[in-house]
Structure formats: structure tokens, C-alpha cells
Amino acid sequence: STFSGRSKCCFSLGLISRSELTACNHIRNIRNIAAHEWELGLENERILKKFGGSIRALYDADHAEHFHWVDNDLEYMIRSFYSGSAARLAVQLANRRLQARAEQRAQKSD
User: Fold this and answer.
1) pLDDT digits over 55-100, tens only?
2) How many angstroms separate the CA atoms of 55 and 64, rounded?
3) Number of alpha carbons in the 13 Å side-chain half-sphere of residue 88
4) Is-contact 50 74, C-beta < 8 A?
5) pLDDT on residue 47
6) Residue 91: exposure state from Cβ atoms within 10 A (0-12, 13-18, ≥19)
7) For residues 62 and 88, is the Cβ–Cβ distance under 8 A?
């Protein structure tokens, strides 16, 4: 019933790709850090160590062509990279669901 478990299950069933599973894992990691840390900031080495790899991976996967990397503004990174990647993934999965429904309707009419 966890996001991680559901993501892995969807991947195992072929409902999401490896890159979508990876995005889910990075999004989950950032969300968990933000939800459980009181001192969320780039000056906190522990946070930077936990957070940096995931935010950079989302940037590289989804935003490198459109944005410049800014490594000293946590609010910008969350607003631009984390939120953008989460929204992109949500839209991608919603479109896949609509496409599957359209294919099911087409099969029924044949």
C-alpha cells in the first residue's frame, strides 16, 4: 500500500516503464525528505546528501533542455524540477489510461 510498493507492482505488471519507475522513486525520495525533515535547506549537509541525487536526476531526465541548473536555490529546484517532473509523470500516466480506454472501446465495436 506504499507508493514504492505500488510503483514496483505497476512496473512488474508492465504498466509503467523503467524510466517511469525511476522517476517515481526520485519523486518519492524527495517527498519523504520534505515531509520528515524540520531543517529543509541546502546548507544542511545531511539533506543535501539525501536530496541532491534525486533532484539532479529529475533535472537531467526532464528539464536539462529547458532550464539551467541552479544549485543554490532549493525553492526553485522544488518548484521547477520536482513539481515539473511529478506533473509530467501524472499527465503521461493519465494519457496512457485514456489511450487504453480508447483501445478497449475500439475492440468492443469490432
Assistant:
1) 999 999 999 999 999 888 888 888 899 999 999 999 999 999 898 8
2) 12
3) 16
4) no
5) 75
6) exposed
7) yes
